[in-house]
Amino acid sequence: MLQEPGGCHAGKNNEISGTPSCIIRIFGHKLRSMGSFFLKAYSILAWGTMVLTSLVITPIFLLVWVLTFWWDRRRVAAHYMGTFWAWHYQSLIPFWKLRLEGREKIPFRRPVVLVANHRSLVDILALYKLRRPFKWTSKAENFRLPFVGMVLSLTRSIRIHRESARSGYQFLTQAEQEMAKGSSILIFPEGTRSRSGSMRPFKEGAFLLARKMGCGIIPIVHTGSEKTFDHGSWVLKGKSVIRIRVLDEIGPEEVGRMEIRELMATVRDRMEAGLLQLEKEQD
């Protein structure tokens, strides 16, 4: 006799004995085991495919950059090549569903500061779905990653040196230069990913930048990316619906009237309300 979950028994020929509830628990346990094996196998296949296809896409990305960098000051063509790359990665995971609302609120040519909550590494892939040209802000370590670092560098993303006392000044200087060319900047104001789902305290950089450049701020909220992987794991968790919603812009005049702390609190309140609404709709 083999002992199964919940006190049920399986005989020599895998015949199951016990109450109907026992039998249901046994089959549930077996299905979960099969599901875990499938996700691990699929994760290996997906990661391997990503690496192999990146070897193909990289020369195409470089060709696009070489043909456009001398006249495309905003690196729009390179950004859209990055968007294609992200779409390709997303297409390899058929049980991820991405839903976007409000993309039309983001101007194509007028620069704004985009601020989004941060829950997972998958946020980067998901937010490429905005399909608007903008500059990422990212810690300096990410610029050294294979493929990712190349995309960040060639699209002139904003590099943040966290260990440097001058990091704030360097961030503002580079961001101002890119916005002067007409590029929007996307920033995670929390600075790092939230493990709990609740937003971490905001840093001032995005709000100082908007005030200095006299531009609007567009909050973006999203849910679901935290359900794609467990923290520190490379194994996919299965089905996940990632919902992204672009909120209404806080215009330049309103930004200019508020002190930094008031501006940060206003944006945070709107984002928390937006997240709460998204989560209610998802339940």
Condensed summary:
By secondary structure, the protein is an alpha/beta fold.
Would you mind describing this structure in some detail?
Helix 4 (about 150-155) links the parallel strand 6 and strand 7. The radius of gyration is 23 Å and the shape is globular. The chain has one domain: Glycerol-3-phosphate (1)-acyltransferase (3-Layer(aba) Sandwich), CATH 3.40.1130. The strands form 2 sheets. A 7-stranded mixed beta sheet has the order 4-10-9-5-8-6-7, sandwiched between helices. Helix 1 packs antiparallel against helix 2 and helix 5 (about 165-180) crosses helix 6. The two termini are about 40 Å apart. It is α/β, with parallel strands linked by helices and about 280 residues long. It has 8 helices and 10 strands.
What's the topology here?
Blueprint: E1 2-3, E2 9-10, E3 16-17, H1 20-68, H2 76-91, E4 96-101, E5 113-116, H3 122-127, E6 134-139, H4 148-154, E7 158-160, H5 167-180, E8 184-187, H6 205-213, E9 217-223, E10 240-246, H7 252-257, H8 260-282
Parallel strand pairs: 4-10, 5-8, 5-9, 6-7, 6-8
Antiparallel strand pairs: 1-2, 2-3, 9-10
Helix pairs in contact: 1-2, 5-6
